[in-house]
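Lab meeting, item 3. Inverse folding demo.
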């Protein structure tokens, strides 16, 4: 049973928010605009027994604060917050409920969710608690951020557990953990591929939805955060903070950046039927977007039940403090913002000049890291691709759909694909933004893997328990003639050729390329295109097949693509393609029709044609001009070559991409069906002036 000892609590300070070790005591500060009382509750080390309570009687600018003398790091605590019980006005206070500090950096306990949160019932034994963190004493040694240039960035999207859980060469105790991500075999693989920046799916402490738990499933992806500054305990053996820092230090030493996929658009508390864990009980009306005139309901821009209200200065402060924690103390190199439109929503919709963007722009720490937006949410007018401020990159789903459609469905014409290859300037070419603004991808965590993209016409999500209704309905995929795995050699050869053409298109396009982990070795999810709820072999990368000839060839092929991109600056230009003449005698880009002439309006609109090329001119003396030829048709194409002496450097018709001959080619070259070729011409080897 807890005891009261008010003499140990002094007024403390209203800053910083959270629990901060202060000499021989701990300062506690919690924002709640509408609360009438806040009680600090202390627990045993395991979080099971409440031992003391203290009232925080001092309140400054809506921050309740107090200093607990004689306390230090390791103290386990939570809050009980009282206030008006007026659901119709958005107030859901209940002093019986224990609540998690939104600034928690370490967490103990388990959140056991009931059917509906019962009011007036003490839930302390079944609730998460925060642990007071001590000063940062981690030895970073000579750690330095890799500082990868924007034009050289190659992103690799991975899940912490899925990346290593089945890796036979990672020590068993490290598999599925932060430290496993930075184990020598994994780092060696990333370096072999040429990856510069590892983008990790959410690592904030998260909860699974009650409906999933009832089906025996979990939210494996982790897009359900509950503490924005606490590394997820799922990925640690003992100390999540220290082990995360160890991972970052080791990856930095290998020259690899760490990018975090962060979710600041909603929390795991869901809608009015969801659990009371933290913000909902601390000050529901301040932290969340509530419906105007119906404050008992939540705006659901995220599709998960609620949306954080970053228009409120204290909610914005919470997000900014979290970002500074990860970029500062944890030394990450950038962020990918899930459903980022929500972060910029104002009274009339999305605003690219919203306070959130201004705060990041002026922050001396955050202005230096990579910033990537998923430029949509599920609310009204949620698709905002191309409207984010200068300094931000954005996921380019139009690239994904156009490339898939061209190669697999014959549904995107050459003009549409050409816009994507050129960097989607109609979306991103404003406010002095560079082509690297667009993050190009063929696949991501959300949807089919690359192997499944060429193996399934339809999603197969029955294991999710939603009657195969969840996940994208239109994937622009093609099963190559057989739905799912097959032993037919011709089908498997076709699938391999299609995968190589898709990947090659990604790496010869202007923008920032992103790979999905496992695509380089043929990972499949058995046709499930929404595998968020499976913590199983369905999601974990199977590394055992890496030694097989097919997987080795595909890994070598991806590594070849990355190396070619780094070798040729024309593939990663920092200026937009315009068609203008360069000093080297070529235009920066020239689009070619099937006859080898320049594309005109009639050529672009030619019905049923899915073969064309483009010439990238060298902008500096000594650089090679490049020629890319694409043939998505089933039949071969005898493609005329421009004047000059051309050498083939990439042939996606071959399993490793290695050309049969490195010698010069004559006046034309034959492209097999569904093949991409990359050729180079030395600057001094053209016969024309």
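The presenter then showed the designed sequence:
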């Amino acid at each position: 049973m807890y005891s009261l000892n008010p003499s140990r609590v002094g007024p403390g300070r209203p800053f910083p928010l959270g629990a901060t070790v202060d000499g021989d005591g701990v300062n506690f500060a919690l924002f709640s605009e509408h609360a009438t009382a806040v009680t600090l509750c202390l627990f045993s080390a395991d979080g099971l027994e409440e031992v003391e309570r203290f009232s925080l009687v001092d309140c400054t600018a809506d921050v309740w604060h107090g200093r607990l003398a004689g306390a230090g790091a390791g103290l386990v605590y939570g809050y009980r917050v009282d206030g008006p019980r007026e659901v119709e006005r958005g107030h859901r206070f209940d002093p019986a409920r224990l609540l998690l500090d939104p600034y928690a950096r370490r967490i103990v306990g388990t959140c056991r969710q009931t059917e509906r949160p019962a009011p007036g019932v003490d839930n302390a034994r079944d609730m998460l608690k925060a642990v007071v963190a001590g000063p940062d004493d981690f030895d970073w040694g000579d750690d330095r951020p890799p500082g990868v240039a924007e034009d050289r960035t190659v992103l690799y999207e991975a899940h912490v557990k899925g990346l290593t859980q089945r890796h036979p060469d990672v020590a068993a105790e490290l598999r599925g953990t932060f430290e496993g991500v930075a184990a020598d075999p994994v780092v060696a693989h990333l370096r072999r591929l040429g990856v510069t920046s590892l983008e990790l799916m959410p690592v904030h402490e998260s909860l699974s939805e009650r409906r999933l738990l009832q089906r025996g499933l979990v939210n494996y992806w982790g897009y359900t955060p509950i503490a924005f500054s606490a590394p997820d305990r799922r990925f640690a053996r003992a100390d999540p903070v220290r082990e995360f820092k160890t991972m970052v230090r080791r990856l930095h030493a290998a020259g690899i950046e760490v990018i975090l996929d962060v979710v600041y658009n909603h929390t795991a508390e869901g809608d009015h039927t969801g659990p009371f864990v933290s913000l909902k009980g601390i000050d529901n009306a301040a932290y969340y977007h509530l419906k105007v005139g119906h404050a008992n309901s939540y705006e659901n821009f995220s599709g998960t039940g609620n949306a954080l209200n970053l228009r409120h200065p204290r909610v914005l402060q919470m997000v900014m403090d979290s970002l500074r924690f990860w970029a500062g103390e944890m030394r990450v190199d950038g962020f990918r913002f899930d459903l980022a439109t929500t972060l910029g929503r104002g009274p009339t919709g999305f605003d690219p000049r919203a306070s959130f963007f201004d705060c990041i722009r002026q922050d001396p720490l955050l202005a230096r890291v990579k910033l990537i937006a998923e430029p949509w949410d599920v609310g009204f007018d949620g698709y905002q691709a191309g409207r984010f401020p200068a300094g931000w990159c954005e996921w380019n789903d139009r690239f994904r759909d156009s490339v898939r459609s061209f190669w697999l469905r014959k549904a995107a014409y050459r003009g549409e694909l050409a816009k994507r290859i050129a960097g989607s300037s109609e979306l991103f070419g404003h406010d002095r933004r560079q082509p690297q603004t667009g993050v190009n991808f063929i696949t991501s965590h959300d949807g089919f893997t690359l192997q499944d993209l060429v193996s399934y016409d339809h999603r197969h999500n029955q294991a999710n328990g939603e009657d195969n209704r969840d996940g994208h309905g239109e994937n622009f995929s093609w099963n190559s003639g057989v739905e799912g795995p097959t032993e037919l050699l011709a089908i498997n050869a076709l699938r391999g050729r299609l995968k190589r053409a898709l990947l090659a298109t990604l790496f010869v396009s202007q923008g920032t390329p992103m790979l999905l982990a496992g695509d380089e070795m043929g990972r499949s999810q058995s046709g499930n295109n929404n595998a968020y709820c499976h913590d199983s072999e369905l999601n974990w990368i199977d590394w055992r097949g890496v030694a097989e000839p097919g997987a080795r060839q595909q890994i070598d092929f991806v590594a070849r693509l990355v190396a070619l991109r780094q070798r040729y600056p024309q593939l990663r230009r920092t200026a937009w393609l315009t068609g203008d003449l360069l000093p080297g005698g070529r235009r920066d880009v020239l689009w070619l029709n099937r006859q080898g002439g320049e594309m005109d309006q009639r050529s672009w609109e030619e019905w049923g044609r899915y073969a064309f090329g483009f010439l990238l001119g060298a902008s500096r003396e000594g650089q090679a001009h490049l020629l890319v030829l694409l043939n998505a048709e089933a039949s071969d194409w005898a493609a005329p070559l421009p004047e000059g002496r051309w050498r083939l450097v990439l042939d996606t018709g071959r399993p490793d991409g290695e050309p049969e001959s490195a010698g010069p080619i004559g006046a034309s070259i034959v492209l097999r069906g569904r093949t991409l070729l990359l050729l180079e011409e030395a600057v001094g080897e053209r016969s024309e002036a």
